Amino acid sequence: MKKYLEEMAVKRGYSIYFFMENNWMPYLDLLKELPENTKFVGLFETGNIDDLAEIKRRLGSRIIVMGGMSVDTLRFGTKDEVIDSAKKCLDLLAPDGGYIFSTDKTLMTMNDGTPENVIAACEYVTENGKY
Question: Is beta strand 40-44 parallel, antiparallel or unpaired with respect to 16-20?
């Protein structure tokens, strides 16, 4: 992974996107070895927003953190719970940049989130996600 990033992101200047499946918390020290200030985006599957805040705190110069909005919240939560979750994502992860708001998993079907909840999250982030 490190060699790939050094070649593609550092030497060739490409943007790299990785889906970081499952729990990456045990591997943060390994990720510290990645080159700094690259266009490396990691979508972390963890549904724990506090873990994402810790990832950003420890690896902020090496990775752009993506994720945070739980698909389960979009599917089963109320509109207010969705807005609260989106707000928490922006409050914890957006300051100082290096964050892309996204769901923690890819939405695959219409049942992965109610239309009302997806709209509520998008509207909240569009209005409040400018920094």
Answer: parallel
Q: What distance separates the 2 farthest-apart alpha carbons in the chain?
A: 46
Tell me if 24 sits within 8 A of 18, measured CB to CB: no
Three-state SS for 10? helix
Sheet holding 16-20, edge to edge: 16-20, 40-44, 64-69, 99-103
Q: Chain-centre distance of CA 45, in angstroms?
A: 8
Q: How many CB atoms lie within 10 A of CB 30?
A: 11
Q: Helix 115-128 crosses helix 79-93 at what angle (to 10 degrees)?
A: 30
Which neighbouring-strand residues pair with 118? Answer: none
Write down the mean pLDDT value for the chain. 91
Q: What is the pTM of this model?
A: 0.88
